[in-house]
Amino acid sequence: MILIFNTIINSKARDNFTHVIAPLITFGRKYQVITLDDELPELSQFTRLLITGSELSASQGSEWDEIIISIIKYFVKSEKPILGICHGHQMIARAIAGNSVCRRADIPEFGWKKIQIEDNFLFKGISNPVFLESHYDEVCNLPEEFNIIAANSDCAVQAFQYRNLPIWGIQFHPEMQFDNGFKMVQNHLAENLQDNKFYKDELKNKTQIDQNFKIFNNFINSKFQESL
174-214, pLDDT tens digit by residue? Predict the structure, then answer.
């Protein structure tokens, strides 16, 4: 069973991920969603961990860092598959390599952006992708046991895999389809006018993002041997 750790703070966005997005990206597999306020279930019952994005800052820290990092470390030690999105990606890096691998980005990213990807099991079936970006923080200075598997001109670590294990972090948001992704970014830009200068739209056709859900299917089907 998949454990989805929904770390989103805004109640409306949190509920949307739990009730609308989670069923779409789990492809009929059994899963359980927990939030920051929930009592922790017995972690041994779960085969893999998915950590959402969040309004929390990984570079600045939060009151929930200890619990987030403890859950990540349990799955890392067990060598069970992990996928972290945006803030989840940053927290995986911190949990494994320490606080120095996450910082405030010189160039925040907002909007639909092209990403250069490496040949990796997580990206099986994906080519020339465009993903939604919405972040202030970024992963940096990773030790050599991390393999950087995606990048663009504004962010050198768009995705990583830890060693040859099925443990991945992705800075972007493949869970976002066009309508909800566009709405999320536009709401942010309306409330944070200074960020409009960082907005980019490299999406030429909405169908370019139809392939993005494959990341979750690949993650769900990942095994230790497949990630070598």
Answer: 999 878 888 888 888 888 889 889 989 999 988 999 999 99
Rounded to the nearest 10 degrees, what angle do helices 65-78 and 87-97 cross at? 70
Token pair 């739990």 is found at 18
Structural domains of the chain sorted by starting position, each given as residue range(s) with its CATH number in brackets: 2-227 (3.40.50.880)
Q: Where are the alpha helices (DSSP H) in 42-99?
A: 65-78, 87-97
Classify burial at 212, counting beta carbons within 10 Å of its beta carbon; exposed 0-12, middle 13-18, buried 19 or more.
buried
> Which residues are marked as active site?
86, 173, 175
Burial 133-153 (b: 16+ CB within 10 A, else e): bbbbbbbbebeeebeebbbbe
Structure confidence by residue, pLDDT tens digits, 128-167 = 999 999 999 999 999 999 999 999 999 999 999 999 999 9
Amino acid at the residue 112: W
Q: What are phi and psi of 34, to 5 degrees?
A: -125, 155
* Per-residue pLDDT band at 228 (split at 50, 70, 90): very low
Closest-CA residue to 168 (of 16, 64, 62, 51): 51
